[in-house]
User: Fold these one by one.
Assistant:
Number 1:
Amino acid sequence: MASLGWTGGVVVGLIAVTAGLGVLAGRHNVVDTAWGLLFAGVGLAAFVTSQGHGDPVRRWVLVVLAGVWGIRLAVHLGRRSAGRGEDPRYEKLLGSGRAHPFLNAVLKVYAPQAVLAFVISAPLQVGAFEAGRVGPVAVLGVVLWCVGMVFETVGDAQLERYKRWKRAQPPEQVAASVMDRGLWRFTRHPNYFGDACVWWGIFLVAADHWPGVLTVPAPLLMTYLLTRGSGKKTLERSMITRPGYPAYMRRTSGFLPLPPRRAGR
């Protein structure tokens, strides 16, 4: 498919700019902010190159879903990291390559993120070229995407409010405080759960017609990363040492939103 060169070029171009900004900023966690923009860029490239090929409604749906999700995530992560230093994850990852720091960062941070973004965005690239009209499977996908956006957006907002509240309290009074309010009462990771819903929703929009169903590895890979890769598993490895968090883990679902378990169960 000729559009693969364009979508791949967008990913490479954006990741190259991000790497340059990382060098200027002296920290490579800028790639987190660029993560959502990679998908927004792929969605836009697929939309443009599929002109005259794919169903217009599906093309618009996919570019909007990818753009809204990607830009919101980029803005959120950009604000969160503003004025802060390097993420400990990247310090640990890059610690062994000090002789060639930039090459080390490209091989361990930027290149893997670019490859993952290209693979996971397969539903955007394939779905934009499908000529069949939007059907019930695609509608279900949009509904699931909306559910995911609610969990991501509301969950992030609730966590930010909690952090502001915690900073305003005497440290000794909130030492064992854990965010277990709102959506965080039902899942330890409403933002990761929402992220998974978003990408399963985008997949369903593409899977409404052949060959979109063949892109199912994309949401599977994203879900794996969120639950077993750099998402939930990595975060909880650092959080479990904090006072109150082990008890929170025992009573709260790790991913799927469920009613809290009672103490002793």
Number 2:
Amino acid sequence: MEYWSEIVGQPEAVRALDDAAALDVTPSHAWLITGPPGSGRSNLAFRFAAALISRGQDREAVYKQVRARTHPDLGVLTTQKLLIDIKAARDIVTTAHYSPAEGRYRVIVIEDADRMPERTSNVLLKALEEPPERTIWILCAPSEADLLPTIRSRARSLRLVTPSAADVARLLHERDGIDAGAAERAARLAQSHIGMARRLASDPDSLARRDRTISIALGVQTLGDGMRAAASLVKVAEADAAAITESLDAREREDALRSLGLPPGAAIPPQMRSQIRALEEDQKRRSTRSLRDGIDRILTDLLSLFRDVLLTALRADPELINRENEAAIAELADRWGPERSLVVVSAVETARERLGRGITPALVLEALFATQSTAAALAPAELSLGGNR
């Protein structure tokens, strides 16, 4: 099935969606696609959306429009904020009642459906209870537990798995033309997260920032080291977020000016300033979210490092994620032992949970490295008596 060739490591899901999108089948009116970050939830959702809209031989042409978010029969609900607000949900529900303009169905994709608070979810629930005849909803979330039971019960669920690093590397090599060795390293370091693997393989700056993250963490021994490491990694995350958003912000501003009939660099008439201000506010929210996402990526990288240390300390003969740092990992495992290593792994997991609750990223990292430096100084007996409280 060449149309689905970009979808990695999800053969059962692809078969189910391809069958559901067949011309002689009436598909379920709502779908819930769940899977871990990097499993390809959004890519699969938009491929499925194009297949549902398509009338047969035009799948690829429809997908190009769907990917660009320009197809008239596609609606997308997403957010640059931490939560999807109720007004955005009401607006998209209103469009659900429009008849398809060109395709077989009108399809509405909700990315990050787990970001809907209960009030917002209830707006969607009403639309799912009384679905328009030719509208199909596709919701994406990390797990079914992230949505209200009443919404889960009204959607057909499709669970994705984490693709293997070998599958991700093969995709990068065959589709993007990336050297096989570089593709293998990127897929391994990204822990099979497809989007991150592509960035690490194609952007030397992204790979250098990850290498710096690991180097900084390996250098923490004292509390002072930890506080300096926290400050440095916030700067790493800020640089990563800026790399993602700056070119996108400039392109969006240029497009907005063009749509208003203004050449690049022209003065903005007073009556048009509110539209540009709204764009700038959206971009500021995206920048904030990108920074938090960058901190979470750093924490994911640190978790991979300290799990490597823990497994090495346990003499588990692990296949290291951070193979390039094998000597430093072995030295740290000998110095910490399993008890200290487990304390630090738990501290990273706690840091990710705190970040998800909206705690300031700098404070999250400072608390993590304070725990790391303290754990490194304590004896195993002290740890068991509460050193990780």
Number 3:
Amino acid sequence: MNPAFIITIDVEADDAWRGSADVTTENAAYLPRFQALCEKYGLRPTYLVEWAMTSSPSMREFGQSVVADNTAEIGMHLHAWTTPPFRPLTEADHRLRPYLADFPPDDVAEKVAAITGRLEDLFQVPIVSHRAGRWVLDEVYARVLVERGYLVDCSVTPHVSWPGAKRDYTRFPSQPYFVDLADIGRPGDSPLLEVPMTVVPTARAGWVGRASRAVGRTSLAGRALNRLSPEVTWLRPNGRNRRDLLGLTRTAREAGWPHVEFMIHSSELMPGGSPYFRSRRSVEGLYADLEALFAYVATGFCPVTLAEFHAGISRAAPRS
């Protein structure tokens, strides 16, 4: 059976990394080009939309179009500092970008309810797929998602620890599993399917990890070391990793993995919208990499959205 190929796009404001209180959403106008490329190769993306983007007329028009044409799925992505209700956790949430998991449980529930309702009103479809802002999910957050009817999460990044968030995914499963709501790092019987991001250790992971721990992972030296020789490889384009993208998908196909999950930010599709693709030339290079990857996966993979993947897993599950 061919592996599923899942495309996820975090649809969020322009250059959210800069920490500015001024939010712009110009990158929404660049989504149709990406969608056209997906359709050229028969691929079915899932757009995980953050609150700030729901105010963009371009995003609303685009999302309504792909829903009407049944060419993509709309899901939810939540940044705690832009999603109401606004009860600041720090002196400057827009700059410090606290994780939703840092907020009291009632705030978590209210923010999830607010953005879910907003997306469902705009696009007139159930919203059942989700990725946490800055990748951090915990048990409280997962239970809120289940209570709101979510069926799929894709926040887990295997082999990666997020020290500032105190969220360590290094021992989490790398293949899809229904989560245990008492411990989201293990399989259970909840209705929430975790579809982990495709992240694999590199051949140099051991010595790089030891060296970066010695100097401090978040220090200048630690960040430089990981950039030069990363501990893990993601199925995520950065303008320099076409070979890695193709290698990961080739490995998945040969090994018979159930899925691979690709991700990109919507702002990376716009020149100057992210720290990684600052110029038109760099965005054109990105599209050359995407063309090569999508042409390869067009045969030998099964293109599905997150909700479609969940439906396939559910159908395949044995009945008691």
Number 4:
Amino acid sequence: MPNTFLKKAFDESIKLVGSNDNIKSNLSIEITKHLDVILSKSESSKGVLTVILTSLVYKSLNPEQDIRNHQTSIENGYSGRTFDTKYITPFLKSVKFPAMAESGWLTRSLEQKVPYNKDYSGAIRPATLKTSFLETIDFIQKGNNLDLCLSYLMQGLIIKRNSQKINLAKPLNLPIATIIDLLTKHFNSTYIAEGASRLPVLALFAAYECLMKEAKRFENKELLEIESHTSADSRSGRIGDIDIVDKNGRAFEAVEVKHGIPITTQLIKDAFEKFKTTQVNRYYLLSTADIEGSEMNNIEKEIERIKNIHGCHVIANGLINSLKYYLRLLSETSEFISNYVDLIENDTALKFEHKKKWNEIISAM
């Protein structure tokens, strides 16, 4: 029951955070100011965070318990340390949140055999943290808005975790078939947070970074910096997710990437609306879901129509097939992997779980 409760709260909090970096909550400022202090000290005072979360979860599941009485040696008490050791600390470790080695109750300032009431004598430092700790314990004991309180802390911890850098694996000299398998697993893994649709774009961009130096077609051409995931094409003036321009800054080649959306005739028409006023030479429409087979004839007719009235060669294809082709053109695939990993590390649309999944996939090779 506690494990299920924690997972549900965590999953809901990840959805609330989404691609934003702000906590969404209707809690009053009287309590959020104390929760913010606890979050700000979550790395240096892991014990306080752990005790607060233990108290929150235990009170939610056992409303009749006075959680200020955190030890069985205290009258009408319960064993906070036992509950923490069994459920809370293992959970914190599993999701890469700040966690003690075993239990928050192994901190001297928190293990005293007296209730956590307003005159608690434990030497919690700094004083502002002690005040926030005891005010939050009092809030939890009253039993109101416990779900909102837990969500607030979870969201704050997720946002802090997402902002942290993690060292990502960069395997060398992999066969193309292995690289494609790794990328496919990375694209198609199940994620709670938004942002997975960015991964295929980054893979294509990483390939183009290599091709720009190796393919004669791209002599005197420039690969434009990859844009923010939230940038609108109409505002930025870009015509694709990836854009290459000639020495005069005119559109030369562009790529639009779809994740999990089959290519249809309508998508081809929508793409044409983006580039019809430019002199772009090639326009790729690539999808991880390939092409809608029933529309193949109509897609070919639309591509031919665009070629006749504009001159641009539109290429619709499965993204994986295109990646295989691009990788075969490279003299060294290790540079591609390095580029892809660097992009994953630095792209703001991606969250911690997208980065962690890459390491997990590499470890399972």
